[in-house]
Amino acid sequence: MDIIVSGKNLQLTEALKDSVESHLSNMRVSYPKLNKAEVVLSHGHGKYKVEIVLHGNKINIDAHAETDDMYKSIADAVDRLDRQLEKKLETFHHNHKGEHLGDIERRHEEEVLENIDEY
Length: 119
What we know:
119 residues, alpha+beta, Double Stranded RNA Binding Domain, four-stranded mixed sheet, 3 helices, 31% strand, elongated
């Protein structure tokens, strides 16, 4: 996964880049279909803000975090991304259970027969 880190109104240090890359490296392993991560680190009004956008195969997710500490903002944004990815994958697996059409039709026929027997 390509990770693009940019800074706005702050000096972008190697430590900040390493922190972002280490946090996102876990996602790289867990979600191999992710292709690119765009990260914008900014400072304004006494707060540190992190914006992360993930791009992948049929998936685009973004997360924002704003705290008094840049490293905490990075961790919070990555946690939000992780929750969003888990939720997206749960709904995907729930909607695509891998059932064959014949199994679905058979189950539907059984439900119809049960409803008829009740009347």
